[in-house]
Amino acid sequence: MAKGPFPVFGANGAIGYAATHNVSGPAVVVGRVGSYCGSLRYCDSAAWVTDNALICWAKNVQETRYWYYALHTCGLNDHRAGSGQPLLNQRILRDIRVRAVPARERLRIAEFLGAVDDKIAANQRVIEAAEALMVVSIEPISDHVPLSTLARRTTAFLNPEGFDDTVAHFSLPAFDDGAKPRIVNAESIRSAKFLLTQPCVLVAKLNPRIPRIWNVVRLPAEMALASTEFVALRPIGTDSSALWAAVRHDDVVATLQRHVAGTTGSRQRVHPRDLMNVRVPDVRRLTHAQSRAIASLGSLCDERRTESIRLATFRDGLLPLLMSGTVRVEDGPAKVSHPM
């Protein structure tokens, strides 16, 4: 896909950028096919929308963002048709009823919830800039060493009967959904996991063309468990942020991709032995000041992700109350209230 200024939306959100567009915002993009059908994205600018998604425009263009939030209360995925390849179509969507507040309240709701989502988006931009700077900071290092020189694999397995009642699960879906572990009941986990006891770097073995490399700079209060789809790396002679930068370097990612050349799809897996043998920049050569700067950037990313999770939880809890009229956004400084 060509690179350009216009985001490309597929069945589950943005998937890249294009040089041309076929939609002008504001609009709501609805995932049309697959397990993510019914997913929603607000598009406030020109974009390219693939055949895997549908486009919705509000009759009153100023209310577009309000209807984006209103659709979140409809459980669109529950209305999908088909079993082998779930899908939504225009006929299904036209028959779905959406509960709406009076028109005079819609813009206030959209502005209030939109401010929360804008802050989450700003946090993501900070994270992307900080991570890019972490990788750039190690570019001057000319010495390369096998990854096994800088890290040791965590191989401590824990079976479900040894889990605490509540655990923090570091999984592939959790990484894809903001790179924060999911706090879940242990009963929901059926297989053995890696037990994490210190900051580390998790490298997904699956499909290295999508580099899922997780910098775990701080363990949660709950028992920390990692999916066996990751290789868990404990840093040696450095910290997790510098180790992350070394593994996330473009040359290292390209090397891992070459190791699975010739295989396809879900069969593309990096063998832990190949990972430990790959040569990475020797981040022990960083000065103390450089190491501290990278560590600070790693902590900044973790803080912004934590804030975004908190904001998303607040938004998701408030959204149905606003849409039902149980609480309202008042005029003046942004605040919500219960109607009498």
UniProtKB/TrEMBL annotation:
MF annotations from Gene Ontology: DNA binding; endonuclease activity
ATP-binding found in the keyword field: no
Residue span(s) of domain Type I restriction modification DNA specificity: 5-131
GO biological process: one example: DNA restriction-modification system
Keywords of this entry: DNA-binding, Endonuclease, Hydrolase, Nuclease, Restriction system
Any Pfam family matching the protein: Methylase_S
Similarity remark: Belongs to the type-I restriction system S methylase family.
Name the UniProt record assigns to this protein: Restriction endonuclease subunit S
Organism: Mycobacterium spongiae
